[in-house]
Amino acid sequence: MINTVLFDVDGTLLDTEMANLGALQQMLLKHYHINKSIAELEFALGIPAHKIMAELQIPFAESVELWDAQMPEFQHLVKVFDGINHTIDNLLRERLALGVVTSENQTELERLVYPYGIVQKFPYVVTASDTTEHKPSPAPVLKALEATGAFAENTIYIGDSIYDLQSAKQPV
């Protein structure tokens, strides 16, 4: 019997794809003179920023700050997916344990996601700040299971990327 439901954020609770990719694209062009199409940047969806910057071969700390600086210009593209608030409210009424497992770090979550009011509904939140290993490692999902006291066989993890699937399916 399922008693715990875990959710990814980007692409699952919030439609952030075009905002994130647009800001990344603009940052790369403006600061590094790297011209990549949105399609070429889709690899960045669902993985931590340090892996994105390693793939692009640019300095992590500097580039993340520059990427974040572009986000306000694209924030208007972010929205809560239709029906998510209703779904979360129904799951809470059913007394299921709910949690978030995201590749966002705590600062990113607070700044970019909290304004939409969705994550605050979840009693358990695991960010990239909470584990040393990140998706597709099972570490973030295992951390959420530990926090909720749930067993893997009684838990569903809902995400939108191959990294979410890999994180959820790896042996515990």
Search tags:
globular; alpha/beta; 172 residues; 46% helix; 6 strands
Describe this structure in words.
The chain is α/β, with parallel strands linked by helices and 172 residues long. Helices cover 46% and strands 12% of the residues. The protein contains eight helices and six strands. It has a four-stranded parallel sheet with strand order 5-4-1-6, with helices on both faces. α1 crosses α4 (60-74). The longest helix has 16 residues, at 17-32.
Summary of the model, kept short:
The chain is of the alpha/beta class and 172 residues long. It has helices at 17-32, 38-41, 49-56, 60-74, 84-93, 106-113, 139-148, 162-169, and strands spanning 4-7, 14-15, 79-80, 97-101, 124-126, 155-158. The chain has a four-stranded parallel sheet, with helices on both faces. The chain has a two-stranded antiparallel sheet with strand order 2-3.
